[in-house]
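Deliverable D2.4 — example input (structure tokens):
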């Protein structure tokens, strides 16, 4: 399994969001593109299709953190910390992260804020109309929610017994009381991303999905005509559903 596939799969399972690869890539609400090779390829935006939307007010989420189960050990200033995070590193303090297996992931994003498209039902109606008119392809996705962060760190081990040393920078800008981290030493770290500024580590996307048709069955009824079909069964055969890299693998 590729590094990008492992990383995006683990974060999807943990948070229910798609992970941006590479983690420093910026993605915006209403971006339209394709999800291929565990990457989001931006092709345009909803405005290009004549679709407009309102943004739901931002929601503060604080710090989001993750470490692969059984594969990561974190020590802050000589004291072992909970493996689940988040990990608070005071100014001037050091953080040591040890990986016990290849491909283990360590992720932390600071000062996170969620933004989302307000009216998804109206968005669905507009996109399905475009699909009916042949102006929206089934392999397109639209970004409907993003998690923005002011600081993010992603580490993925390249081999067992890998490790990295980080130190918070005294006098550096703070995010929610935490200072920016810098790498002082590393070993067997295949992927190392320490980003500052406006990052988009996580997002949600939707695409046009087609309902599965149930196979017809022969049913002998002795008690009159069959009952009426539920409303969903009478609805159109397509809908706007959640999309992730695995849907297009």
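Example output (designed residues):
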């Amino acid at each position: 399994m590729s590094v990008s596939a492992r990383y995006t799969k683990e974060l999807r399972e943990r948070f229910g969001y798609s992970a941006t690869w590479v983690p420093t890539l910026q993605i915006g609400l209403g971006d339209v593109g394709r999800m291929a090779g565990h990457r989001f390829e931006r092709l345009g935006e909803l405005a290009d299709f004549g679709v407009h939307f309102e943004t739901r007010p931002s929601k503060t989420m604080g710090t989001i953190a993750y470490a692969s189960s059984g594969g990561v050990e974190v020590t802050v200033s000589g004291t072992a910390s909970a493996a689940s995070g988040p990990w608070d590193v005071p100014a001037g303090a050091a953080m040591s992260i040890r990986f016990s297996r290849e491909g283990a992931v360590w992720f932390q994003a600071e000062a996170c804020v969620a933004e989302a498209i307000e009216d998804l039902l109206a968005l669905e109606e507009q996109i399905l109309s475009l699909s009916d008119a042949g102006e929206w392809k089934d392999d397109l996705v639209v970004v409907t929610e993003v998690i923005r962060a002011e600081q993010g760190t992603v580490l993925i081990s390249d081999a067992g017994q890998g490790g990295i040393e980080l130190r918070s920078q005294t006098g550096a800008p703070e995010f929610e009381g935490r200072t920016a981290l810098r790498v002082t030493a590393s070993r067997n770290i295949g992927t190392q991303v320490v980003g500052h500024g406006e990052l988009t580590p996580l997002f949600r996307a939707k695409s046009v999905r087609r309902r599965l048709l149930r196979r017809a069955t022969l049913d002998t009824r002795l008690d009159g005509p069959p009952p009426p079909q539920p409303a969903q069964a009478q609805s159109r055969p397509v809908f706007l559903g959640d999309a992730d890299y695995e849907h297009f693998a």
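The mean pLDDT is 82.
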